[in-house]
Amino acid sequence: MPLTIIRNDITKMECDAIVNAANSSLLGGGGVDGAIHRAAGPELLAECRTLGGCDTGKAKITKGYRLPAKFIIHTVGPVWNGGSHGEKELLASCYRESLALAAENGCGSVAFPLISAGAYGYPKAEALRVAMDTCAEFLADHEMTVYIVVFDRSATFVSEKLYSEIKRFVDDNYVDEQEHKDVRRRSKAFFTGRALQSAGMQFFHKRADVPLEEAAPPLADEACIEASSPIPSSLADAIAQIDESFSQMLLRKIDEKGMKDSECYKKANIDRKLFSKIRSDIHYKPKKITVIAFAAALELDLDETRDMLMKAGYALSHSSKFDIIVEYFISHKRYSITEMNEVLFAFDQPLIGA
Question: Per CATH, is 3-152 categorized as 3.40.220.10?
């Protein structure tokens, strides 16, 4: 996907460029800065000596040397002083300047650490939000894959209020997998029983003079078991009743919303190549996270989201924490993919996108 949060050692990222959260001298230091200098080797320090330092919010580029990355982009983040000294603007500038340098040097992928969130004291939740929002804004006009590389999956990456609110929603709605299986088993037994009744299989009763309906009370109101549509009488009839596919529904919804294709797939955090496959293949089978990404990008309500999932053969389940978190956001009309992914990451769930 174009923008994602991952847990990794940034010095091991195999991409075109990695970003170094450097100090203004660019001559190495602690934390991420020191780790990158150690992994790249002494040649990096030699090149950095020629750059004349770097101002806060700006960025400069060097070779990657012994790193898997071709380039290292060095940027100087702001020190946190309470948030009223332009820290947010300076931090956003770090990401914008770094991304611009990556684009100028033909990079198709770039990996960032969480700038200023270590020794510089920037609150992690706010630092992550600036990173995600600034990168998402850049990607709206550029084709590039961007990674935000962090080590910690703790709840501090989202606000305490939002984390607690979603945790309560998950706790209130989560159904244990064993309980979910029991529900399915009872449902299967119920409909099997009704099928036997409908078939008039009274041979279960030794007394021929006691009809099945008198031998036991009905399992449910007749209205509950009426078919929603007539059963096809032939294979040809069944095929004729096939509903629109996921691809057809997606393209229809894009038109109904008055969106451009590029606007939709970028808002969904979906790669252009994947969207092209979906557009060109009416029977394309997407991953579940891809369907949800498009549902959020199109700002579908919960019923429309369930319908789109059904077109692709999926459903939202209360035995899945991922599904419940998605349901929370959509039911509350909070459609930001970046915000959803921040929360999913904090709950150790898969991220939305390609």
Answer: yes
